[in-house]
Specification:
Length: 145
């Protein structure tokens, strides 16, 4: 499994919105500028996120986007599943129940199921708020006299 640019940029975009959540609706151009991501690329990600009600959108002069819920309600796993689809390490685990004709006799199936469980548990244990808190802690201890 490899996380695509789309997944990484969606996570960065949502982190940016979480970081600036007290500023109201945020224009894509501002996110693009701060994150050094093409605005056109962000425009391709927004429809994926809009389908799942992660974002609130406001059109017009003061338009832009904001998170629909607080940052502690969004997990990295949820965000990546929206943008990447399945987080399964092998194709045979992407459908439930498993459709592979060899699954009953597959000696490696348990390995892949274990890896999938670890990936999902880890990514679902991290929220946008956790990442923001970690960044704040990192920079609050970075001072010069």
């Amino acid at each position: 499994m490899k996380i695509s640019t789309k997944g990484r940029y969606a996570l960065r975009m949502l982190l940016d919105l979480a970081e600036h959540q007290n500023n109201g609706y945020i224009a894509l151009k501002d996110i693009a500028e701060r994150q050094n991501i093409s605005k056109k690329y962000l425009e391709q990600i927004v429809p994926l996120l809009n389908k799942t009600d992660i974002l609130k959108a406001n059109r017009g002069f003061q338009g832009g986007y904001m998170l629909a819920k607080s940052p502690d309600k969004y997990t990295v796993g949820d965000i990546l599943r929206i943008t990447e689809g399945s987080l399964s390490p092998v194709a045979c685990l992407e459908q439930k129940p498993i459709q592979c004709e060899r699954s009953a006799d597959c000696p490696t199936l348990q390995i892949w199921q274990g890896l999938e469980r670890v990936i999902n548990e880890y990514l679902d244990s991290i929220t946008l708020q956790d990442i923001l808190d970690q960044q704040r802690e990192k920079y609050s201890n970075d001072y010069v006299i």
